[in-house]
Structure formats: structure tokens, C-alpha cells
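Appendix C. Worked example: Serine/threonine protein kinase
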Amino acid sequence: MSDVLNKGDSISSNTNRYEVIQEIGTGGQGHVYKVRGNEGEYALKWYNKTASTPEQYEAIQMLIEKGSPSEKFIWPLALCEGESPDHFGYIMPLIDTSKYTKMSQYFAGEIQVKRFEVLIDACIRLAHGFNELHLSGLCYRDISFGNLFVNFETGDIRICDNDNVTFDNLKDTDEIWGTSGFMAPEIVRGESAPSSQTDLFSLAVVIFRMLNLQHPLQGQREYEIEISDVESERMLYGTHPVFIYDPIDATNRPVPGYKDIAEAYWPYYPEEIKSLFTEAFTTGLHDPHQRIRESIWIKALSQLRGQVTYCYHCEHQIFYDKTMVKQTSKCPKCHHTVRILPLRMKVGNQIIMLNHDSRIFKNQIDPSSIMDYDIQVARVEIHPKHPSVWGLRNLSSDIWTYTTAEQEIREISKNGVVPIRAGQEINFGGSIAIIR
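Step 2, the predicted output written as C-alpha cells:
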């Protein structure tokens, strides 16, 4: 059987037979097809003769035996062979492209996202996905936009091309794995093989670009490169990488009018998330053991999600920062001074804005439940007859207590509503919130 399959061709796994429907993608290792089996439609990655090596076969077999870390991964399900032993491939779930879009299309401007929560949720789920992968003893090796799909309505994600995945901390550095701009500096310099530590650097790059639309290392230095080649990329990403917002080294700042799209976002983020990015691309840039762990990203991004609010002049989404109550802030879109803020809820060290459409999640009110970022426990509701009266509906199974204006303690069970007013204290059971 050849490198290319045709419509109607059949290939077989140990237990099923699949018919080729159409080609849906191609790459350096081979082609991807939509196929039909006894249990429905799947995707088939079919390796060309050069990539059909015994090592690749064994690698796919290992992944199938280990099983997928979670539903976020488009994981190999079965090895398939044709009539010739010179070619093989593997069956995997088929991505619903009516819902999921390649992340690269977002950066190409083909997808418009109006709500920050969708981008933040995608980053949270991405961090959680790689946390699950690393906990299973594996690393990805080639995180890049071409391998990531996002549902830009919900923030859900899918991670594909999982034949990149291998055991963590392999020592072989003969083959460079990764995509330019995403590889950790030590891989670019040829000093290290891919590992969970290098994955953490790539993850930080993706999160920064998702939220700022600019590469964290592409500023003045890249602008000054006349001809981009291997040596210039090695300097930019490997031997002399500098964060565009490095607090000490200002030689790689965004270039006004040329390489400055991050300037429309970075200044308006709360200091906490900016500090985390700064740590990731200063200390973490040079010391693999000081990189930001996935759980730290999830916690910080969940806090950022709670800080989303609105400019009440143009309805553009902005972020609450505690400095907003101490100094004049302006909306990045309409440039009006932000004078009105909704009530906000303080839980521990975290601030959650109580907008008209706010949703509260378990990990925002329970510090011991970092990974419960998808479990909604409350939402803000406006009284249908009295628009000035807002409440917080309990969507959890826990019983809350609060003190009324008359100093009575009341219980709120599931689907009950706590009135939102300044000075209100709400006991969620494991934590206490104060509304300001």
C-alpha cells in the first residue's frame, strides 16, 4: 500500500476494519483521513514509508497501552496496517470541526473572541490537560498552535498529534523536538531533551500569546533582525532570549507600530498575572526548575476570570485590579475614566467581581479544590421585577449561611438566593466571603 490512501480503500486493526472516506490533513510524516468503522467515524493518521519505522510503531503501541490521560487528548486508539508492512497508521477520535477550531486560526484573525472568559477557560483547560499528561509520566515534546484546537464558544480544548508524546526525561538529545518559538531555550541550544520541564516553558508561551496576542520574546530584537535564519532564531530563543517586559533588561520591548500588539492588553491586566508571566520569562527562562507549574497557572487564571468586569460606558470587558480603587483607570477601548465598579466579593486573598452575568466556580471559593474550575457553585441574578435588587443563587449542594440586615442568621440551600449588598458576609462552609 502506498503513502497515499484513496477513497474506498480499507485498512485494518486487530479488531476492526475501516474504510477511507476522505483526506482531512497532511504533514511531514504522512496524511490524516476520515474513516468509517463498525462503531462510527474516526480519524486515521497514515504514515508515509519514511516515517513507518519500528520505533514509531512501538511508540504508538505504548501510547495505546497506557491510554489517554483525559478526554482533552485526541489519543491513539488502535494501530492499523494495510496490505504492505512498509506502511501503518493509527486510529484516533475525530475532532468535530464544527465546534473546534485550530488555535492558529485565532492568531490569524479568522476567529473573533469577544469575551475574555473563553480565552481564560481555554488556558485553564490547557494547563490542566498537560498536568494530567505529566502526572502519567509522559511529556508532549511539541506544544504549538498547530496541535491545539479550541471551542471558541465554550473555551473547551482538544490536544492532537499525540504521537509526539513520549516518556518524560528521556536522555537522547540527538533529535530536536519542537516548533520554533515554542521550544525551551535549553532545547534550542541542544543542551536538553524534551521533558515535562520544557513542556512548562511551551505552555507559558501559549498562555501568554492567548492573552496578549504577541510572543513573549519577540520585540525590538526580532525587529532588528534583517534576515531570519537558523542562527538568528537560535539567538532570539536560545542563547540570548529576553522577555519583552523584562523589568530590568529593556532591550527587547515591543516596537511601536510594528511589534506592539501586546501593548493593547498587557498594561490592563492585574499585577498578579503580570508578575506570574514575568517570573515565567525571567527566572523560568533560564532555570527549568523554576518554571510555573500547571496548578499555579490554574489558580492564577481562575482568579483572573473572577476579576473580569465591564466599562459601564462602552460595555467593553476590563479587569479589576486593586489599584483601580486607589487611582484613576481608563478603559482601553473608549478611554473613558472607569468610575463605576460593581460590588465585589473577597474570599481569602481573592477578589471576585459580582457583575450582572458573573458565575462563581468551586475553586474560586475553596482553596483546596484547585482543579474544580468547571464546577459552577453560584451565579449572580437580577430580580425580574426590581432591577436594582441583585442576588447570588446557590447552585451547589452545600448549605450556606448569611447574616441579614436585621442581624438574623439564615441558611441558603441549593437554588436559594442570598441578597447582594455591601457589608454582607456569606459562609460557604469552607470559606467566608465579604461583599464590598
